[in-house]
Description:
With about 375 residues, the protein is α/β, with parallel strands linked by helices. It contains 16 helices and eleven strands. Strands 2-3-6-1-7 form a five-stranded parallel beta sheet, covered by helices on one side. A two-stranded antiparallel ribbon has the order 4-5. Strands 8-9 form a two-stranded parallel sheet. The longest helix has 22 residues, at about 10-30. The protein is globular. The termini are far apart.
Amino acid sequence: MDPDLDPLDPLSRAEAAHLAARGSLTDADASGDERAIEAALRPRSLAEIVGQARVRDQLGLVLEAARLRGRAPDHVLLSGPPGLGKTTLAMIIAAEMSAPLRLTSGPAITHAGDLAAILSGMNEGDVLFIDEIHRMSRPAEEMLYMAMEDFRVDVVIGKGPGATAIPLEIPPFTLVGATTRAGLLPGPLRDRFGFTAQLEFYEPDELDRIVHRSAGLLGVELTAEGSAQIASRSRGTPRIANRLLRRVRDFAQVRADGVVTLEVAEAALELYEVDRLGLDRLDRAVIDALCRRFGGGPVGIATLAVAVGEERETVEEVAEPFLVRLGFLARTPRGRIATPAAWAHLGLRAPAPDPSVGPSDAEQMLFDG
């Protein structure tokens, strides 16, 4: 670190983090590792985070209070759609507390013994991050209750009548759980988190600032119009914004003069099949099949998946949430239907309402099915 930087000055810390990120990006670019590049673009502190102001302020208060008390912060639950920064926030929590971060995921913890092995290696003040925590096995979940509340687990040795439970004390630590489906977490587990943060989709101006920041780290020259074009097609998600920026950068370097202008961004995103609303090939295939082949629905999700040549889970978990959020698709008790907005987006005229659908059914179309 530059000796002229004062480690106690927040601005200097931000500058130092920026320089460190640039160094990481240089190494990542040299190795061609896309994952390393994505990791190097992550904010390194709460001060660097763009957007999520409410969560940032609340979490900053929790961490500052813990530092003043000289204790580990309360357990933190981060929920929200993929790509909004849950893993980044977990890394920032560890960095802000100057504590080691241990990472694992719910699907990797298939037995209580797996969790016991992880917890037994924890030191005081460590931060344990469990991604997709709702996918942990039930025995491990129940062991986690006691670990979070009493910092103790009972390790069972042997089987049957001769089994013996050995209590294992764990130093105070902070658990950070991340989930895309908070409703699947059992109540007893959810209630043991001292702070719960619900991450929201980002506004276009926030994504614009993220694109500018990432472009600076990547050494990409771009205009305000080019940046705004990328941000507007990023589906409210920083991960997608950074991915599109890297692809537009490639296009600018190969087919233009290296500067990301409005024209270059539009041409690149058209090549990668990302339209002005952020819909990709799969999204358009879903609404196209729904409107052109099935007259706007209702149609079952399995039939719709076959029509677009994808697995049901892919359509249901990747395409459908964004289409519902845009108001292009509705889930009804009878199946999926296309809204007038979807017809308009395809340049088609929506058919007249079916007179056989009564008022009560029409009201139900707005809700789950």
